[in-house]
Amino acid sequence: MEVKSGRVKVYLLPLPSLIFILVFLLLSLLYVIFYTPNFLQTFIETIAKEDFFYVFLRTIRVGLIVVFGATLLAYPLTYYVNSSSSSVKTFFKIIVFLPLMVNPIVRSYGWIIILGREGLINTLLSYLNLTVEPLRLLYTEFAMELGLLELFFPFMFIPLLSSMENLSNEVIMAAKSLGASGLRVFFNIIFPLTLKGYLTGLTVILAGCASAYVTPTLLGGFRNRTLSMLLYEYIEIRFDWGAATATALVILFTVIAVNLFFTKLGDYLVKR
Amino acid sequence: MQKKLLAAVIVAIVIVGAGYWYYQTYLLPPPPPRTIYISHWGFGWDQIKKIVIEPFESKYNVKIVLISGTTSERFTKLTTKAEPVPDVIFLPDYYTYQAQQKGLLIKLDLSKISNYEKVYKVLRDQIPKSLAEYGVPFTIQDLALAYRTDRHSKISSWKDMWRDDFKGKVLMPTITATSGPMALVMTSLAYGGSIEDVEPGFKALEALKKDIVTFYSRSSDPQTLFERGEVEIAPVLRYNWAPLKNLSVPVDIIYPVEGSLYVLNMISVVNGSKNIDLAYKLIDFWLSTEIQKNLALAGVDAPINSEVSLPSDHPFNISPVFNNKPLYLNPEVLAKNLKSWVDAWKSRVEG
Amino acid sequence: MKALFFLVASVTVCLLLGPIIMPLSISFSSVETISFPPKGFTLRWFYNIFEYETFVNGFVSSSIIALTASFLSIILSLPPSYTLYRYKGFKIKGFIENFFMLPMLIPEIVLSYLLLIFVYHTLKITSLFSLIIGHTLIVLPYAMRVIYASISNLGVDIEDAAVSLGQSRVAAFFDIILPNIKQGFVGGFLTCFMVSFNAVSISLFLSFGESIPLPVAMLNYLQIRYDPTIAAISTLLVAFSAILSISVERIVGLVSWVR
Hints:
The structure holds three protein chains of three kinds. Chain A is mainly α. Chain A contains 13 helices and no strands. By secondary structure, chain B is an alpha/beta fold. In chain B, 43% of the residues lie in helices and 17% in strands. Chain B has helices at 2-27, 45-60, 71-79, 93-101, 121-126, 129-132, 179-190, 199-208, 221-227, 238-245, 276-287, 289-297, 319-323, 331-348, and strands spanning 35-40, 63-68, 88-92, 136-142, 144-148, 170-173, 212-216, 233-236, 251-254, 260-269, 326-328. In chain B, the strands form three sheets. In chain B, strands 1, 2, 3, 4, 10 and 11 form a six-stranded mixed sheet that branches. In chain B, β1, α2 (45-60) and β2 form a beta-alpha-beta unit. The N and C termini of chain B lie far apart (65 Å). Chain C has a single domain (23-251), classed as Orthogonal Bundle (MetI-like fold), CATH 1.10.3720.10. Chain C is built from 13 helices and no strands. In chain C, α1 (2-26) packs across α13 (229-251). The radius of gyration of chain C is 22 Å and the shape is globular. Residues 254-259 of chain C have low confidence and may be disordered. At the A-C interface, α1, α3, α4, α5 and α7 of A face α1, α3, α4, α5 and α6 of C.
């Protein structure tokens, strides 16, 4: 293909956009690191603190639990939707898509109405005489996990569904006709062939849980801090810039590590 | 095609320009000639506006702009010189001390504030010398315990928070709220420690951990959480009294037998302010008997002006404080220990 | 089996729609607290929204920021997309594609912090422009994906034909390429708008002074009161989002821009 460039060198075109990203993303990252005096020492001090450890552990734990919940719901749902009529498919695509158009503050507020001591669940339970006293559901890790599950479920559903769609029905039929039980079909056929989509969803969820701020704050409170809440705390409450930078970097590293790990894992497993 | 290009560019400029113009005109009105920026919690600002701000604005022909937020948010902004920089800042005394240590405040000539003499002498005299000329107290924040009377029998001691019937229903302040360190010190005092030795306090709080629903950081959290039934007992400060007594659920507030721990909230003038003269006038105005009385009656702040007299059952009548073992929390001690207490609290109590 | 699927499906639907329907349901309740079930009927929370300057200003601020960020990100996406589309054998093509996805890799809250220190505190750029820069960065990958996909789908033949007939490349770009990617353009713009409008963390960190975006105004209000005013705002926002997304659906296929 002949490359005839006029007065404008075409390959220079992306330059402004690249510079934009370079300056405001990468340069700012480097700047923030070098802006902190004694960076290495501050970094080590921050992550060595006891409460940092608890918060980090909690963030990972919450992420894994949300992934677990999403897996439990997403697999049956996508399988069912995939083998349904296209109007059902569209219906579910819309339902799943809808929450993404809504602000996380609104969604957390909705959860507060549902989980509060005077909220939907407690009112229902006491009406049915199942409880004597309202249950303490808000400001718990559970409430936070529910909120995060609702927030990130679409990001598991959509990639998994497209993987499912690529799955040839015949393969499943063939396996079944050869006598494989439902469970075997799942583990030996469905799971490996939809792995790429699943891992995409899993990565997004884990990264999201580490960086979501509004939902954990409103539903979990100070008792159940996650890494992003800690970052906010260092900036706006404890005014400790060095620690904030350290925390931000830990979040960044975690997200990148999760991304890399599961991408490589996916590639490796697919080869087998 | 060149025409189309031109048209596209013009449309784009018009859209962005229109948006920017709208923003500048309607969202960012240029401030009038003299504007004073006040950094305040924002709590009760509707009443404060009516009682103090608007009369002051019309009397001196100035515009007052509020910068609101929690103590720590505003303190951080002060230290980083975030725009807009306030002229006058309202802080609890131990933050005023920290600001003064960092050279962020102006040394005040107290003789220019005629109403300073009217501040309760016993309170004035307790302020450490280093702090007295950098902040003027305008109200007292004493710590008390609020609880649901319909669900629990009477409480009298700080230790009642550890009672069985309050399990899973306790609200605590976070360490960076004004009442946070006060709650820690109070707990230490109740469990055999002192203001310097807070280890007994930490141990007691660690034992209470699982029964603490959450930690509040904003001024209005206690009211909203009591109203929603999420909590049934909490340490609260004076400014929570009026709202708490106005809820749809019955709440009573008592002074624990261990004593009434208090801090003073102060007004200071920020270094670099170009409106120092107006700042002095504002402080004097805020301390005047009439304003202090109206602020108290409106449920905003307890009066620190000794000439104000309130009915004995009024939530802001602070004479009971003087009668119930008042303990001033020395801001110098508090400011010195704060960082280590924050670190320890975050690991041991908030986990 | 069918029963199991039905169960999972209903649980999921409740999970996803519940938190959105709840605020809708209590936005008309005459009870001041956020308890359920709602009692009575009143529109006073909706009136309340307009009594608070901050909400209306917040909506306008958020809209302006979203519009500007979407516009900028699309403008920034066009030249690279064109280059990548023309140079099939470009060596660093893959690198550039991934480079534009970089903002997605960085968590929003980390990005907000970086910009706070670098852009706001150091470069002393005003709050409004810092917000615009931040939102543009966040939205850029979405814009890039849509624009690049649209341009790629065109195929080089059209442009080659125009050039061989005498048009200059620049003219061909505006005459031929742009009109043909109108769909992607609009779809991308609306997507960027929604993403920016709902981006909370970055607005939280970078808004100072008087023009605070709507999400921050809502959070500030939540600190003072939990009454259904927020529910009323939620109702209006959901309606607003619904209208916008129906527009997206009409112009571009629903899930076509999602990976």
